[in-house]
Amino acid sequence: MYRARLSLALAALVALVCIQAAFVYWGANRVNDYAQHSRLASDIQAELLDLSANKQRLRVWAMQRLMNTDAQPEQRERLVASMVASAANLDDLVRRDLALWTELVRREGVSMPAEVPQLVGVTELLRDNIQAVEARLAQLVPLEQGADFPALWGELTQVFDMARGRDLRELINGAIAHQRAAVPVARAATERGLDVLRAQAIGMALITLVVAVVLALHLKGRLQRPLDRLLEGTQALQAGALDHRVATGSNDEFDRVAQHFNAMAAELQQHRARADAARRGLEDAVQARTQELGAAHDTLQRLDQRRRQLFADLGHELRTPATSIRGEAEIALRGGDKPADEYRQTLARIVGGVDQLTRVIHDLLLIAKAEADQLMMHPAPVDLRALLGDAAEQGAALGAAQGVQVQLLDDREEGGDGSGALPAGLLTVLADADRLRQALVIVLDNAVRYSARGTTVRIGLQGMAGTSGVVEVAVVVRDEGIGIDADDLPRVFERFVRGRRARAHRADGTGIGLSIAQAIVQAHQGRVDIASVPQQGTVVRIVLPLVAASPPGAAQAAGVQPRALA
């Protein structure tokens, strides 16, 4: 409603302005016509006077020519040319004046003076008369002794004053008298038009001003009351009175704003209620969190105990090969000289102990580098089938000592479940071959360690469709070993953690192998998945992104550089 009233008020003001502009435009055109008529009358009078003066000068020249005095042909030609120009200007002015009077007659219904169309005929007579005067004066020669001057002069006067049987002097003098009378009349009409225009403009301006003031007061009254109600509502909300509601019922835009305001206040009230409930819930959560922190404190104490046990285990792992090395050396040094073969056997046992100690230290350094994000990789295109064959051979050597067989499956045997078809030929991944082989051997070593004698560990490849649409490949290692309990399975990648079954099966081991394998695989943008059933076996999947096969050195040509573990 208020929007409609505002639109109507603006439309009324625009209509008044348009009406005022129309009145001003109409009055301005009328005044302009009167002013133009005044200018045309003045210009026509000036041209008629100029023509009369030049014709009189030609009479004097003709007299001088007849008397054989100083009458130059150039002067005659100059006067004739001036009269021709004046006649042309007069013809243009007369026709414009006729068009203007025609417009005034059509628009205002006034009568056209008879002299206006007559003056058009006078201009045509003037052109004929000027041509006749020019032709006669060109034939004029000085009078001879005894010539009849009065007769000749009468003939010249007839040429100067008559055209088509009409007296030009009478016509021109009448036209000059008419224009002299028309000029003050036109000026007076112009002044009256200006007065009328001024009065109309002032009147329309006053009417517009009055209407604008009335509309402004009306709209202000309609606007002030709802704004006061809304302001009162906002002040109530600012003071915290969320139950305050703005009165409605005007059925206009402000009524809708008030309804939205009330809805907002109701929603704020609900939010406050929910906030109070959330605060109470937070207090309860804080209390519960305090209890959880107490439990976490107890857990940290247990972890500290595990850390101490870990240090003890590490000390044992490092001390055992060191003690063995020291014992072998003391035995070799004790007593007298021994045969060279005995020394060689002792040195071989010392070298084995040093190798064991080196492997433990190497694993610890690898874990430390992974913790510091400094595990360097040297990626290059690697044929995964060939790498898997090397790892299977090393796993077979490890299994031979434990009485466990390691079997390498072909693609059809492992990928027969339809999860993905592997391409023929080279199966290329971008990897650090030594590091990836190390991760595979760690997984195979675990599978062999925790399998019973006479069982088989199977390793093969399986195609997988990645989430980004890129084909992935999985190295699958299946054993028939002791398996992993469900509560230990989420912690198999934690460093220095060994499950209950692993500790019961074998007392040796640091529990960092799978952590190292996971760090290496993640550095290759891959992942390690483990599924296990106790007493039935474990399945480990090492998933890697598959790339197109590349010739040797393609990674270096493409700008592949060593990189740290991300």
Explain the overall architecture:
This protein has two domains: 2-215; 377-564, Histidine kinase-like ATPase, C-terminal domain (Heat Shock Protein 90), CATH 3.30.565. It has helices spanning 2-66, 73-108, 115-138, 149-161, 168-238, 253-333, 340-371, 384-402, 411-414, 433-449, 500-505, 513-523, 554-557; strands at 162-163, 166-167, 376-377, 380-383, 405-408, 428-431, 456-465, 471-478, 527-533, 537-545, 563-564. The model is unreliable at 549-566 (pLDDT under 50). The protein starts with a helix and ends with a strand. It has 13 helices and eleven strands. It has a five-stranded mixed sheet with strand order 5-7-8-10-9. The protein has a two-stranded antiparallel sheet with strand order 1-2. It has a two-stranded antiparallel sheet with strand order 3-11. It is α+β, with helices and mostly antiparallel strands. Helix 1 packs antiparallel against helix 2 and helix 8 (384-402) packs parallel to helix 10 (433-449).
Listing every helix as H and every strand as E from the N terminus to the C terminus, the arrangement reads HHHHEEHHHEEHEHEHEEHHEEHE
Estimate percent helicity: 55-70%
Tell me the number of structural domains.
2
CA gyration radius, whole angstroms: 61 Å
Number of strands: 11
* Total number of helices: 13
The main sheet comes to: 5 strands, mixed
Low-confidence stretches: 549-566
Mean pLDDT across residues? 78
SS strand fraction: 5-15%
In one word, what is the shape? elongated
First and last CA, distance? 66 Å
The secondary-structure class comes to alpha+beta
Q: In what order do the strands lie side by side in the largest sheet? A: 5-7-8-10-9
